[in-house]
Write a structure and sequence with these properties.
With about 400 residues, this protein is of the alpha+beta class. The radius of gyration is 19 Å and the shape is globular. The N terminus is likely disordered.
């Protein structure tokens, strides 16, 4: 699904656009009741949570020992943590097995009207659709920085797309992933999603679904599964974000810091995949950008979420509400599941850089929009980098 703007004039548009994350129905899958060590856990499998967070969780009635044995499926409102400092994501080893990853692909059936002619501010004409093209396999050589995010919400297992980005505090050894805010946090109506994990080069060989059903995990997740040991999004997304209507979309970005599910091999994510993009927070204005390329794993029909696609187009402007940042918009036929995927353009130094991420678009497809990354996005990025400096 995906979002769009919060004014009375736009009230009728609340059901027009939806977030590009996709969800399947509640799963009966109970695989992965056993935990694993991670940053945030010790080698002997004792969860180590900062004392202040422990107390806050205890106040909410959350027992971490029960959590790893299935309590995470309890989505009672008073147990769905939402504050910026409340993120907790203990590893549950093998929870994201090949079947569960493959099944987390069914988008909700919510057809919408792509007409947003009532938008305020500066909005360029709706772009012509640009057909998404398959990324050349193997992905680890053609788009090594790209991957897929898996997470759980009240409606079941969901998917997004994401990009490995550079870490200023750990040059050449980044464990940072860029995605959309709505891929980690439900916004104003909920809290942090759970069991957030990143799989770089998911389905590296672009196998068809029929073959994936029999493929070993090494084919599906060639670089392993990396769990989020920290995630951060904008305060604006937490306060305003919504699944439809576009509220909070100009601030719909997030950074996930990850750690390997099976324990450290001594290599960072960047070293493991061999790539990480710089993030440009001062990208040129729309008239000065000749092309942007969006990458993602679209999962709503006619796609099935198992393969990586890209769209390249000259961006236009999309203004959802007067007084809020203008977003980038490109023609693209990618659908739900592509949310969070990186938008790449020529950076200030002339080299490819991440300048946005997929946030919103009509479920009927045709175009996508992403936030223009400014001081708020840079603040999120810098905070995550500093949190893990020297680690």
């Amino acid at each position: 699904m995906r979002p769009i703007r919060p004014t009375l004039a736009a009230a009728s548009l609340a059901a027009v656009l939806a977030l590009a994350a996709t969800a399947c129905g509640p799963s009966e899958d109970t695989a992965g009741d056993k935990p694993s060590a991670s940053a945030g856990q010790t080698a002997d499998d004792k969860i180590t949570i900062p004392d202040d967070l422990k107390e806050r969780l205890k106040e909410r009635g959350i027992d971490l020992d029960k959590w790893k044995n299935g309590e995470w499926k309890n989505w009672d409102k008073d147990k769905w943590l939402r504050e910026a400092k409340d993120f907790v994501n203990p590893i549950i080893e093998d929870l994201w097995d090949p079947d569960r990853m493959r099944d987390a692909e069914k988008p909700p059936a919510k057809p919408v009207d792509p007409d947003i002619s009532g938008d305020e501010g500066v909005t360029d004409p709706t772009p012509e659709p640009v057909d998404a093209v398959p990324v050349k396999a193997p992905y680890h050589t053609s788009a090594a920085e790209a991957g897929k995010v898996f997470f759980d919400g009240p409606q079941g297992s969901m998917v997004c797309s994401a990009t490995v980005v550079q870490d200023p505090a750990n040059p050449g050894k980044s464990n940072m992933v860029w995605t959309a805010g709505h891929c980690v946090h439900a916004g104003k109506s909920g809290g942090w999603y759970r069991n957030i994990a990143f799989v770089p080069s998911y389905n590296d060989s672009a196998l068809p679904t029929s073959e994936l059903e029999k493929a070993p995990k090494e084919k599906i997740a060639p670089h392993g599964v990396w769990w989020g040991d920290w995630a951060q999004t904008s305060e604006q997304w937490i306060a305003q974000g919504a699944a439809t209507g576009g509220q909070g979309a100009p601030y719909d970005f997030a950074v996930i810091h990850v750690t390997p599910e099976k324990g450290s091999t001594g290599k960072s994510l960047e070293e493991t995949v061999g790539a990480a993009l710089p993030v440009d927070f001062k990208a040129p204005a729309v008239p000065d950008i000749t092309s942007m390329t969006a990458t993602g794993y679209p999962a709503a029909p006619p796609y099935d979420g198992q393969k990586l696609f890209q769209c390249a187009d000259k961006p236009g402007r999309l203004s959802l509400k007067a007084g809020e940042p203008t977003m980038y918009r490109i023609g693209c036929t990618m659908t739900g599941g592509s949310s969070g995927g990186g938008w790449v353009a020529e950076g200030q130094d002339g080299r490819p850089a991440l300048v946005s991420n997929t946030s919103i678009g009509p479920v009927t497809a045709g175009w996508l929009a992403g936030p223009r990354l400014g001081k708020e996005a840079e603040g999120v990025y810098t905070a995550v980098s500093k949190k893990f400096a020297g680690q």
